[in-house]
Amino acid sequence: MRRDIKGVTLECVQGNIVEQPDMEAIVNAANKWLRRGGGVAGAIHKAAGPGLEKEAVPLGPIKPGEAVLTGGHNLPNKHVIHCLGPVYGTDKPEAVLLANCYRHALKLAEDAGLESVAFPAISTGIFGYPKEEATRVALEAVAEIAPSLKSVKHIRFVLFSAGDLKVYEDILAGLDN
Ligand code: AR6
Fold first, then answer.
1. Cα of 112 to ligand 1 centre, how many Å?
2. Which listed CATH number (3.40.1410.10, 3.90.1300.10, 3.40.190.10, 3.40.220.10) goes with 2-174?
């Protein structure tokens, strides 16, 4: 599903974040040390190769809501934007910190002059953020920023399961932008 918000395409697909070769940057659901981990981070570091960790670790530690940009190494994408999402129930207020991830990632993409960015559902795996709540925060934050974006024209949300995709589609369809 795709939706245009003030000239920016928001798209939701089911898939794997490391298999988005047409996107200039992919976003990592990172840990604060920017080390290889499980879930999205494990998949990204595995596909990118050891050079990614070598470049990323000196940029850490980062705080919940922050983001940093590195090269894509062996990935088909030019860049990886690493975001630290909040741990649900611990890093508060969760919604503000989660929205900050999306805002800061898009700011870095704009500063680098990128046209396309693919996001996973940050914090909804190991960090325990309830899926619907996190989806609402993610889509509302991105829709709010969309009108001010100059270089970023295509934002893709990559969901691992059909159920997660359905949650994104329902909430994206209901946004009133
Ligand atoms: N492509 C797309 N989505 C995925 C993939 C993938 N390859 N793998 C998992 N997901 P998580 P978090 C979904 O746990 O909650 C790491 O160990 C998954 O189903 O990767 O922010 C880091 O090192 C879930 O919906 O990220 C951190 O310590 C979503 O992506 C910690 O986990 C996010 O799951 C970060 O936890």
1. 25
2. 3.40.220.10
